[in-house]
Prior knowledge:
This protein has 442 residues and is an all-alpha fold. It has one domain: Na+/H+ antiporter like fold. The protein contains 19 helices and no strands. Helix 4 (71-91) crosses helix 13 (283-311) and helix 14 runs parallel beside helix 18 (372-409). The longest helix is centred in the C-terminal third of the chain and has 38 residues, at 372-409. It is globular and about 60 Å long.
Amino acid sequence: MSTSTRDLRSVMGHELNAAAIAVVSACVLIWGLVSARLERWDVTAPIAFLVLGLVAANGPLAVIHLNLHSSDIRSLAEITLALVLFADASRVNVKALGADLSLPSRLLGIGLPLTIGAGTALAAGLFTGAGWWLAALLGAIVAPTDAALGASIVQNERVPAAVRRALNVESGLNDGIATPFVNLFLAGALASEAVRGGGAGSAAIDLLGGAALGAGIGLLGAVLLSWTGRTGWSAAAFRPLAVVALAIFAYATALVADINGFVAAFIAGMAFGTVVADDELLVFAEEAGTLMSLLVWFLFGAVMVVPGFEAAGWRDAIFAVLALTAVRMGPVALALSGAGFDKATVGFIGWFGPRGLASVVFGLIAIDSLAPADARLVLGAVTVTVTLSVIAHGISGSPLAQLYGRRAQRLQQGRPEHAPTNVLPARRLARGLHALGRGRWR
C-alpha cells in the first residue's frame, strides 16, 4: 500500500475495511445469481443474509471483524429505514385507498396499539425491575411487521386479494406509526436513568416537528418534480434519483433541526405519494432500499446474533415466542372482531406479523443509547425475537399460504375475504433481486 493511500485514509479519519466490502459485495452477487432457486426452497433474502453475516464475522470461518457499537453501522441502518419508510409510505396513496382501507385501518388503528400494550405488559412481567419505560420500549420495538419476511404470502394468489393487501399495507405503514412510540418510550427510559420527567415532553415536540417538516418537504418535492417533468426541465433518467435524494434530505434535515428524522421521512413519503401518481419514479428508491436492507440483514447476523444470544436467557425465549404469537394474534383478533372474517383468516393474519428491519434498527438505536444493563436486556430480547421470526415466518410462509388459500377458496363469495380490491405488490426485498418487476401499486 502506498504512503499516499495511507495518508488519505488517515485524513478521512478511519481505516477502510476492504475485506468487509469484498465479503458483502460477494454475498449480494451470489444472492443475485441464485436467489430464485433458493426462494423455491423457502430461503428468503433475510434468512440468507443473516446466515452469511453470522458465518462471515463469527466463529472459525470469520473473515471480517465488525463492532456492534460502530457509528457507521448505526448510520447505515438508520438511513436504510428512512428510505424504506419513505418508499413504503409513498406507495400507499391514502387518497386512492378509499373504502379499501377498512381492514388495514383496523390492524393499524386498533391492532398495533394493542400489540404495543400487550408487549409492554409481557416485558414488564418477565423482566421485573426493568421499569415500565423500558418495558414499553421493548413492546414498541418488536411491534412493527415486515412484509419482506412474508413474501410468499403477498405473492400467493391463492390467498384472497383483500387479505394480501391488508398485510402489505399494514407492514408498509406500521413501522412509521410505531416510530413515535419507540422514540417516546426511549426518551422516557433515558429520562428515568437520569433526571426524571423531562424527556417524554421534548420527544413529543420532536415528533410533531418531524411530521411538519416531512409534510412540507414531501409536498414541495412532489410539486417541483411534477412541474419540472411537465416543462421538460428534469431529465427522465435522473428523476428517480431525485426521489431518493428527497427521502434522505427529509431525514437528514430533520436531524440537523434536532427533530425526528424517521417521522419526517415517513410523512414526506405519504405527502409525496399523495401528490405524485407516477409509480416509475419510486422504482429506483425501492431498489436502493433493497440493497441497503440486505446490508442491514448481513450486519444483523454479523454483529447482533452472537452477542444477542449470549445476553439472552429463558425470559428472552419466552418473550420472543409470545411476542410472535399471543401478543400479536390476540390484538389482531380483537381488531377484526365484528368484521365477519372466517376464524382461519383471523388466525392467518395474526400469525403473519413477522418482525424485521424496523425492529433491528430500533433495537440498534436503543442499544447505542441506553445504559449498559438496559442495552443488554434490549439486545437479548430483540435479537431472539427477530431471529426466531426470520426463521419461523420464512419457513412457514409458503405451506401455510397454500393451506389457507385452499380454505379461503371454499368460502362464499360474499364473505369479506373476497371483497374487490387492488392488490399492492410486495416490497422489492420481498420479491428477491431476481424479480424486480415494475408492478403497479395503485
